[in-house]
Structure formats: structure tokens, C-alpha cells
Design a protein that fits this description.
This protein is mainly beta. It contains no helices and 3 strands. The protein starts with about 35 loop residues before the first strand and ends with a strand.
């Protein structure tokens, strides 16, 4: 698994980060027990998924390219 942290050129919250993974896990507790709460297809072919960890309830956004 390779991890790549990227800060965009525009001002963004410090919590904003991009991580490239093969298996999705909660960034807070590491659990793989996740629930997809929303999925949106983008015009560039990517997909945004709102996820919530079923273990710690931490919400996060997954970008699938």
C-alpha cells in the first residue's frame, strides 16, 4: 500500500488529505467495516462516495478514479 499526502494550491482545512490505497479502511480507527451513505458519479469518470465507519462512526469521503 502506498500513501501519498497532497496539499492543494488553494487554502484547505488541515484535515484535507488524499491517500491512495488498495483496501479501504477507516482513517480514524482502521476498521474495514464501512457503510456507503452516498455515491455520486462525476463528469470526469471518477466517483465520490460518502462513507461512515460502522465501528467508530467516523465519516469520510472516498474518491474512486
Amino acid at each position: 500500500m502506498s500513501i501519498n499526502t497532497h496539499k492543494p494550491d488553494i487554502a484547505a482545512p488541515e484535515a484535507t488529505r488524499y491517500v491512495y490505497v488498495e483496501r479501504v479502511r477507516c482513517p480514524e480507527c482502521g476498521s474495514d467495516d464501512l457503510k456507503t451513505t452516498r455515491s455520486v458519479n462525476q463528469s470526469d469518470g471518477s466517483r465520490l462516495q460518502n462513507k461512515r465507519c460502522r465501528t467508530c462512526q467516523h465519516p469520510f469521503i472516498l474518491v474512486i478514479e
